[in-house]
Structure formats: structure tokens, C-alpha cells
Amino acid sequence: MAQNNILTQNDIRVVDYKDVDLLKNFLNPHGRVLDRRKSGLTAKQQRAIEEAVKRARFMGLLPYIQK
User: For 12-26, what is each residue's pLDDT tens digit?
Assistant: First the structure.
């Protein structure tokens, strides 16, 4: 089964918390992180995205909730 997600298509191996445009692709309209079934990520990629989103929120780059 071929993986067809944004990270593998663009050959992104390290997820950076400062890349807000990339991280916004994995958030729903309410600001919550999408689950693996919707995003199509592997477990390792999902953990990296979640960690990067948490760091970006802490640094003030992403909001905790969307209104």
C-alpha cells in the first residue's frame, strides 16, 4: 500500500514547528489535530505532527482554538 500524504509527497522527513503553513493542513476548522484516518499519516508522522503543533501553540505561532 503506497502512502499518499503531504509529508511523503514532498519528501519531508523532519516536521518543523515553525512551518505553520504545513501544520495548518493537519488541523480541522476548530483547531484540533486531525486523526490518522483523515490525514493519512503513519503513526510516526502523526506523533511528529502532534508534537510540532503543541510546540507551535506554546510559542504562539498557532492558536489553541479557532473561533
Answer: 899 999 999 999 999
Helix (H) or strand (E) holding 8: helix 6-9
Question: 62 phi and psi, to 5 degrees?
Answer: -125, 145
Determine the Cα–Cα distance for residues 19 and 55; give it in Å rounded to an integer: 11
CATH entry, 6-59, from 4.10.640.10, 3.40.50.300, 3.60.15.10, 3.30.300.110: 4.10.640.10
Rounded Cα distance between 7 and 4, Å, is 8
SS3 60: coil
Question: What average pLDDT does the structure give for the chain?
Answer: 91
Distances (CA, A) of 42 to 3, 4, 39, 51: 8, 10, 9, 14
